Amino acid sequence: MQEMVNIFIFGKKYSVPGDLTIMTAMEYAGYQLKRGCGCRHGFCGACATIYRIKGKNELKTCLACQTQVEDGMYIASLPFYPIDKRTYNMEEIRAEQRVMMDLYPEIYSCIGCNACTKGCPQNLNVMQYIAYAQRGDFEACAEESFDCIGCGICASRCPAGISHPMVGELARRLTGKYIAPKCEHLQNRVDEINEGKFDDLIEQVMQKPIEEMQELYNNREIEK
Amino acid sequence: MYTAKMQESIKKVEATRAARMAAEPRRMTAEEKDTLLAAYHPDYKEDGFVTLKVGPNKGEKVPTELGRLLESNSRILNERIDLNKIDYDVDVLVIGAGGAGSSAAIEAHEAGANVMIVTKLRIGDANTMMAEGGIQAADKENDSPAQHYLDAFGGGHFAARPELLKKLVMEAPDAIHWLENLGVMFDKDAEGNMITTHGGGTSRKRMHACRDYSGAEIMRTLRDEVINRGIPVVEFTSAVELIKDDKGQVAGAVLLNMETDEYLVARAKTVIIATGGAGRLHYNNFPTSNHYGATADGLVLGYRVGAPLLYQDTIQYHPTGAAYPSQIFGALVTEKVRSLGAMLVNVDGEAFMHPLETRDVSAASIIRECSDREKGVETPQGKAVWLDTPMIEMIHGEGTIEKRIPAMLRMFMNYGIDMRKEPILVYPTLHYQNGGLEINGEGFTNAVSNLLVAGEAVGGIHGRNRLMGNSLLDVIVFGRDAGKAAAAKAKDVTLGTMNLDHVKEYAKTLEEAGLDTGMVSPQLLPDYAGKRHL
Predict the structure, then answer these.
(1) Fold of A4-77
(2) Do B215 and A28 touch (CB under 8 A)?
């Protein structure tokens, strides 16, 4: 039998099996989640959570779906945070330093407290990627922020009101579109298909009787 | 973190590693695969299925849980919905905001249509966000769309609809190109060449990836683009029934605000169902790698309005769901782990199969190892096999795991398991709905005018099994095409008077068939409250 622990969901005490995650513990306690629950596997950022262990001073942050409950856990979920995403036309902007100045000028108000980094459940160096963005080093910002799932905990901890996930998003799109080298073999293949180069080949394969397809499939050469 | 018994087994895995790495395991013959699937794949068992008694697929097999929803009444059967009070009036209504819905909305917007997305949770709360391994496209010298077609057709047991599969493979390079142009950061070398790998059942290395956040990177880019374009996204609002007009065309949907329980009416000239899969119905009591909202809502909506399903009886169990620890039971362990060289190994340290067989074959093989062959590793949830991840670092060099599959490293590290040094435990998890609503080559249902379907809610693109990397691809290809087609079609549509007659007709059919499930559908959310579940 699994050992039970006491947790406090929004301050109210519930006894739950100690091997559950915060998310499954809330459900075990009777919650039908609508907010604060998305992919349930650590990829979507829906379940940002703040907690404190009774008797300890430290305030901790995590994803409810990726964190096991502990005895004495005081839990508040943060299903939404007013992050400020600016809009832009990717065809019109360029990977120039002034893009960040124009769209997210508040990044220059960073006071270096590092609360964003401390709060990140993905253990990203958030303050560092904001620093890269300030300098207009979008590629470094994109690399550093790549594993961001947009939970918004960083933004909730920021005294300067920065919307970090959106800064990272812009840097990644600029990198993917303008900075990373274009893929030549991809462009060539798109052109070839548009020119109809593969039309006959695909039709030939499609027209084959099933027996012949099976033969082809079972004996096809597999690249090493 | 591992139990003493598991650690004993790990010693055997380590002892055989060098020898295993020196030899590639044999691939199964076609006959061996057929025998294995028939004996061990859940699709081939009678248990877990029922025969539909009503609707377009009457007399056909369907998973029990889905059957129950299809044979339930509408949740608005006894509600008074005022169809004259129109809350939203658009050209194109997209139901669902995952990869397919978002791609459709962007293309419809690009074509000048007045388009709106409605979604039960948030934009991006979708299986697309959770796709880890990659996306296929035949864009290299040694590859061709025909080769891609052959791999997918054979992997799907020669059951895919040729006209749909042709679109998938022929439009794949353009899909990748479109994403690259939107700013998706694909893994590339210094010259810009795509870094590609194999997936199970591919004959060429055509798996493009963005580390192991491939779906997340694609989804967040699409989301950003949808918002930049100012396309309205009505979140926390479900479509609970389609609306028809007096000409029999689809004319919109009844929506439900998930938080206030208010019903709303959306009128639309064309409607795209992009509601995704059904993993949260937990067929055969399997855990799932799917997101919280994967409850087959779109299938229910389409079926009730008269659109037939195709291959609704084929389900994909991803061979490698996390099996330990219990907190991540059922979570996806990307196939890319095997693409990078990790082998599947049993309790005695034996590589019992080639790690890159197709998913159905791999899942069946693992189930056989853990059942009749009694070669599984014991876990609190049952049995599992090892995925020998330290091999990856030995083959490709130290640091590869952190660079290429950081999400996997993070997920296991959370529970004190360092997959660079120790293997991980896996068992099949409910992953993908191979079947879905039937569409024609233009993305429309044949049964109901102006109704389109895209993404996982479609049946027939992949046949009876899907290859890794073809789902991220299909949400983009068919999502984009549906958006363009819906926008074009909307220009010619004149709507008549709206009605919900089909809801009453369906109720009558159920009654005549003597069916009373005591439930309403679509389900919208899984019922986890007050329970211990996964």
Answers:
(1) Ubiquitin-like (UB roll) (3.10.20)
(2) no
